[in-house]
Structures are given as C-alpha cells and as structure tokens.
Amino acid sequence: REVEGDLVLGDIGYGMPFRAGSFDGAISISALQWLCQADKSYHNPVKRLYKFFSTLYGCLARGARAVFQFYPETPHQVDMITQQAMKAGFTGGLVVDYPNSTRAK
C-alpha cells in the first residue's frame, strides 16, 4: 500500500486516539479556544480541555515539545487553558502577542 499519510477526524475534546509515546512534538493552531465553548448541553469546557491535554501528554514521547497558539476571548479562558494543561503534566510558559492592543484578543 502506498500512502503519504493517514487522516484522523475527531473531536479533540474527547481526547487523542494515539498510542503512548507516538509523537516527538505537537503543534496546535487556533484549536484550543473552541474547547472553551459549551456548544452542546453535555459539553463541559474544563473536562474537555483536561481530556485533550492529558491524552496529548500521554501520546508524546519523553522530552517531546508542544506549542499551542490560541485566541482566548477572556482572561478566564487563558486561566482555564493553562490550569488544565499544567494539571495534565505540561510545563512551560505563555507568550502574549501585542498585550496592549485595543483590538479583540
């Protein structure tokens, strides 16, 4: 079978469906802020964020790095995201681009 890659379609709020240690790194662009929304009555943003971060942390190899770029609507969302990431085992920092901008963040 000749393939260039496989595609996985899923909701990251249900977790990442990969074996432990499968990846050397991860990049997320503009995805995390959507986990902060409860667009269905049974969606709990805190639980969905933790499920994502804990399963992603598990499928990363030891010493792997992850980068998350997101657009929070409120400071509460920043806190919620960082708290759940740290609870899942991630460490690191937060870089705020244009913190004094009057445009929506």
UniProtKB/TrEMBL annotation:
Top-rank taxon: Eukaryota
Organism: Rotaria magnacalcarata
Lineage: Eukaryota, Metazoa, Spiralia, Gnathifera, Rotifera
UniProt-listed InterPro entries: Bud23-like, SAM-dependent_MTases_sf
One term of GO molecular function: rRNA (guanine) methyltransferase activity
GO annotation (BP), single: rRNA (guanine-N7)-methylation
PANTHER family: 18S RRNA (GUANINE-N(7))-METHYLTRANSFERASE-RELATED, METHYLTRANSFERASE-RELATED
GO cellular component: nucleolus
Name of the protein in question: Uncharacterized protein
